[in-house]
Amino acid sequence: xxxxxxxxxxxxxxxxxxxxxxxxxxxxxxxxxxxxxxxxxxxxxxxxxxxxxxxxxxxxxxxxxxxxxxxxxxxxxxxxxxxxxxxxxxxxxxxxxxxxxxxxxxxxxxxxxxxxxxxxxxxxxxxxxxxxxxxxxxxxxxxxxxxxxxxxxxxxxxxxxxxxxxxxxxxxxxxxxxxxxxxx
Amino acid sequence: xxxxxxxxxxxxxxxxxxxxxxxxxxxxxxxxxxxxxxxxxxxxxxxxxxxxxxxxxxxxxxxxxxxxxxxxxxxxxxxxxxxxxxxxxxxxxxxxxxxxxxxxxxxxxxxxxxxxxxxxxxxxxxxxxxxxxxxxxxxxx
Lengths: 184, 141
Ligand SMILES: [Zn+2]
What we know:
The structure holds two protein chains of two kinds. Chain A is 68% helix and 6% strand. By secondary structure, chain A is mainly alpha-helical. Chain A has two domains: 4-81, Orthogonal Bundle (Rna Polymerase Sigma Factor, Chain: A), CATH 1.10.1740; 101-170, Orthogonal Bundle (Arc Repressor Mutant, subunit A). A two-stranded antiparallel ribbon of chain A has the order 1-2. In chain A, 31% of the residues are buried. Chain B is mainly alpha-helical. Helix content of chain B is 62%, strand content 0%. Chain B contains six helices and no strands. Chains A and B meet through helix 3, helix 4, helix 5, helix 6 and helix 7 of A and helix 1, helix 2 and helix 3 of B. Zinc ion binds at residues 3, 5-6, 25, 29, 31-32 of chain B.
């Protein structure tokens, strides 16, 4: 068996990871500063395990960023409900956990915008979004619960997310930094 | 810019419900990359403020669908068939007491083979032994 080829492949993968390490870490640091290093480890572990066959370096970079986004979504979901908000007359107020009044005010504003947007959606669409983001139910379980196909549930999640992004952008609550997709 | 995966497989992949290999497609597809960005952006803003939800209760499965009852049914059917095969009246067998559906389902999830390789096989072995003994008795008559 020729051992030259696998060794070369490992060396190539190593070199590619080294080339994009700083850039991916920078991306993660902007999105999740406190745990960026940890998330970067997770990204490179996934990449090394998959050992993707990317014909060009640009493709490898795009691949690494795709994995980084997935890892970030996992991270956001693991950290859900960091700020607990309770409804009060005429608005929302933080119930506990955040000592920073600015962050509490932002969180309250965000929650109001999110709730208003979810309230405007068809109920099954909002339900898919809520269940997938705030509980442990999978899309398959949500689809079964709603009595629809998996693809319908996935489509509802997609539409709900799109509407939320538009609502958050309109309220000036989303990050307006340029997209970080895989292009040079 | 459109891709059939952008509203299906890519969404499932982003939430850990599709093959990891789908990352290669996402990396190569502008529509799916845009969807990944969109979801990450919304999740980063929305999830931290949404109160943690409680999974809604699903209706309990009716008792007749409980695996214990099902196993008991199979056991009784097996006893009737074995009895017919040697031409005797059905042999009475003891079946496990039905437990609550939740407990049974949980046990099945953790160790799916336990019902089959454990209780059921032991019952069938006992049944075979009883039948052999009966057959031997008939032989001596
Ligand atoms: Zn695609």
